[in-house]
Amino acid sequence: MLQWLSIRTKGEENGVVGWPPVKSSRKTLCHRGGCGGGSKSTYVKVQMEGDGIARKINLNLHHSYNTLVHTLAQMFGKCNEDVKLTYQDKEGDWLLAGDVPWGSFVENVKRLKLVKKT
Hints:
CATH superfamily of the domain at 43-116: Phosphatidylinositol 3-kinase Catalytic Subunit, Chain A, domain 1
Low-confidence stretches: 1-9
CATH topology of the domain at 43-116: Ubiquitin-like (UB roll)
Number of strands: 5
Strand content: 15-25%
Helix content: 10-25%
Mean pLDDT: 78
């Protein structure tokens, strides 16, 4: 049975340790409070129906559904009127975006999908 050991060098008592090894620049960022639970960014994966490549977007850069849909439509080369935004919540259910207040949406969204209107 193979066991991974956490070997820490001098000065890394509270450092970020894991496999694959964490780069020193990322360790510095984490020590400044830029990673983990204290992070101000909320990145979620976005996929366009029929497109095999997913992208990530920071939801904190947007303050409403309108700006988010506009940005996503431009990102995938579509027009706002041609797509609907759906999201997967933390429970795994797929819902239509816009049915809940924006703050609640940002807290519960796990994944986004743009669906072509029929």
